Write the structure tokens for this entry.
Amino acid sequence: NVVPKKELPQYLTADAAFGNFSEASSPVCVPYVIIGGGTTAWSAVQAIHEKDKSASVLIISDESYPPYNRTPLSKERWSSDDDNLSFVDFMGRKRSLLYSYSKQVGEHQRSSILLNSRVKKLDLENSSIETEDGKVVEYQSLLIATGGKAHPVESVHQDLGNDALQNRVMSFRTIDDFIALDKLVRDPKTKNVCIVGGGFLGAELACSLKRIAKLNDVQVTLMFPEPGPLFKLIPRYLSEFLTYKLASAGVKVMPSSIVTGARESPENSDSIELDVVSFTKKSLQTDAVVVAVGIQPQDKLAEDAGLEVDQINGGVVVNAELQAANGVFAAGDVASFWDSALGRRRVEHWDHALVSGRIAGDNMAGGKSMYGFQSMYWCDLSAIDVHFEAVGLQSSKLETVGVWNLKEPSRFENRPGSFSRNKYESGIVWYMKDQRVVGALLLNMPREALQEARQIIESKTSVPDDESLKELIPLPK
Ligand code: NAD
């Protein structure tokens, strides 16, 4: 276990909680078992303890850290020079990445945790799970909170998985990934980092790396198959605007580009040569590659046990109480849930992990709460002063209506033939379906606007024309 004991104040090891857990030959019985040790698990444990004060809970996690907040890893964590487990939040407060319990949950209510351990089998008939090292645990109530795993580097191109490139090609999802990338970027030998993937993670990391890379003069490249960053989610003009802003901040943006091969550079064995097909074929020399091409919900365990898996969105199908079968719940990134305003969905939001984890935990302890929450997410592109929050559906396949505070480009910036250089200072993109608002993305808007947008989506009210959308939430003056 790599976590120092002082970092585990709220957890007992499984051995301490259940006698000699690892040596026990017969199944250990635990009332509440949670598979997965992320935000969802942490939130569920608190809800269980609020309802059932003396509950004995076991978290089984394949990570080497107890539950922690992943969201700062692509954002705030990069502006701190502190030890690897803390970050400075937007209020300037130093916080730990590792979660602690809320005050309602007493210090004495420690749950137990088994780290670096994977569950290989779920046996619904016998209400038990089995770990990869053969430990059998019987449960009364089980939560599947296995989240998602980063698509492997080979999913971009098999050559990226070559052993020779191993230390310089990585995915990015965990504290250990952060530590590895931080080390690479700070290594004086690293002069270039190429991020593959133009989604949230790619865009946020490009901004965060650019900030620290300035110190070391590292070139950051952001490469992706779409014409612009976040292209699958936002309208083209906004994606073009982000391209312009990222390029102005010194990120080398390579849209419409895919990797078709990778090898150790013939000139420098510390470097990688990528074959890239873009508008033309080219090769790119880089010292490190970060693959940020989305996640895969970890639903195989549930599927193998006979639970229904969503064939469209992936994830374990749960009912309104987040139950997949009798006594078995799923929540967070891995759950495909029913959203009464927007239909069946699976979302990968921290906010959703927090609230669905809480509802699942409450229901595991005898509650009957329904999950009816429109979770939000936020994206911080700090190097380019872009901050947005979003709720509901975002897809560039939906009809969108933008309501903007625009700052006119200067004459110099508006050269013919260049990108649209309107400056979107603040505003809202409304996502529409059958004249109904189904989603909103708020750029640099005041905090209250998000709650208003959430209510508009939940109320399913129809909006007759684009002009009425302008009235829904006033823009800041
Ligand atoms: P994503 O799905 O948002 O974006 C994936 C990107 O990779 C897209 O540009 C896609 O076209 C590209 N891609 C896919 N396959 C590719 C291939 N073979 N070659 C090249 N490019 C390819 O996923 P992400 O950005 O990796 O984020 C991972 C997870 O982390 C998600 O769950 C995301 O929600 C979460 N996250 C969220 C935030 C936030 O909300 N601010 C920030 C970081 C990460």
Residues 74, 155-156, 196-202, 204, 224-226, 258, 292-295, 348, 377-379 surround nicotinamide-adenine-dinucleotide (CB under 6 Å). The chain is about 20% helix and 30% strand.
